[in-house]
Amino acid sequence: MLRTLLAALVLLPSLLLAAQFEAGKHYEVLETPKTATPEVVEFFSFYCPHCKAFEPFAQQLNKSLPKGQKLIRNHVDFLRAAPAELQAELGKAYLVAESAGQGDRIADAIFNYLHQQRASFSNAHDIRSLMLVNDIPAMVYDAGVVSPKIQSEAQALKQRQEFYTQAEALRGVPTLIVNGKYRVKLDGLDSAQFQQQLNDLVAYLLAKKD
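Now predict its structure.
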């Protein structure tokens, strides 16, 4: 009897979340295959004003994820604001900062540089300069941006972007895709409870079995 009661208590949070969220309203089921392991991917661009507005929510979402899980941040290169090569370079710069444990701080700095200061990048040197001004050591940045690890991660960003674009699952940014199968409908969340609903919805989708 006690064992049955404990099992019911464990299931209760997931049952409540299931009752709270609806396919078509809060999330969409994609035609893409489900990933072998749970994952949350955010497609975003530093050039996107909507992504800047979403940034605080993305950072809090990352902190709310289950132990061992992290938000995979996939910078895209298809916005018209800058050449694709420059956008890809910015994505690599973020990867270096993230690898150094400075991802959130540098993301804020890049967003502010582009949207608050209304500045721009002309080349990779400009991006490097911003990293150094924001306390990423030159040796760390210069070694990191050409390292096999960062090169491999940058290639993964591009491949993931192309895969979901071709599958018509990625149409703009910001976009959140959970387990490769569920796309979060950000406009379906209650603005008054946005952060909590976002955290709960992603937790629900991560645990979803079908």
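The longest strand covers residues 40-44.
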